[in-house]
Amino acid sequence: MYQIEGVSVYLYGDRSNQPVVFIHGFPYDHTLWDEVTAALAERYYCISYDIRGFGSSAVGTGQFTMEQYVDDLEQLISVLELEDPILCGFSMGGYIALRAHERDKAKYKALILANTTTLSDNDEARLKRAAAIKGIDEEGTEPFLDSFFSVAFTDAYREKKAQKLEEWKTRILRFSPIGIKGGLLAMLGRTDTTQSLKNAQIPVLLITGEEDKIISPDQMRKMGEGIKNSTFVSLDHCGHMSMLENPQGFITALQSFLNQSL
Asked: 59 burial class (0-12, 13-18, 19+ CB within 10 angstroms)?
């Protein structure tokens, strides 16, 4: 593990291979990608990290913005001297990848966007995030997580993998509530990246789950419209947490895209 200005970074594979940076979603940590990086590390230089405020990364004041998250990503790329990295972002990690691409389109070789959107929060979503922050302040993280898991995972997965969900819950409850609330603040204040993605000149892979209740497959399909070089994959038997609910399908989609794009 590396520490880069308070951000915990994990490296897998040969650094001479094509670098792929994996950006986890809210409210997880880098271990969300463990199965994916294990499958790809033989051919690719895989980098995952804990977004500031999550996992073992620094929490600080918790007054985070999407711009600060992108600053951290750019610093990581600079310190590790990554050339033409591919970004793979899931959900909130996708927001970071999209804004990073918007800030410096020439830096990245391809984008992989899983269960995410270019749209900024509307007023309803902002109020919902504000209520979540208030709820964490008043009741703690656990009730928030229970509610989040109920929509993030399909009913079938929650019934079949109840122990796995308990393990995730236990892990996330170790994170500072300050960092979790900071993530909500950063998402609440993010900008719209729709136009910059439509102008993308690099290959873009869009992955969704057929039963995603948080960011619908139709929304992601529309994201792909007008992109010069995009691939859209909808995975069956999964909701928002595509890499956990259908890991083999997720990995196969990545491998196919990377084989075609490099």
From this structure: middle
Which of 71, 117, 78 minimizes the C-alpha distance to 221? 117
Domain that holds residue 193: 2-261
> Count of domains in the chain?
1
Q: Are 253 and 113 in contact (CB under 8 A)?
A: no
Tens of pLDDT, residue by residue over 2-35, are: 999 999 999 999 999 999 999 999 999 999 999 9
Main-chain dihedrals φ then ψ at residue 44, nearest 5 degrees = -130, 155
> Tens digit of pLDDT for each residue in 132-170?
999 999 999 999 999 999 999 999 999 999 999 999 999
How far apart CA 69 and CA 25 sit, in angstroms, is 12
Distance between CA atoms of residues 153 and 131, nearest Å: 21
CATH code at position 116: 3.40.50.1820
Q: Indicate whether this model's pTM tops 0.85.
A: yes
Which among 115, 91, 136 has a CA at the least distance from the CA of 211? 115
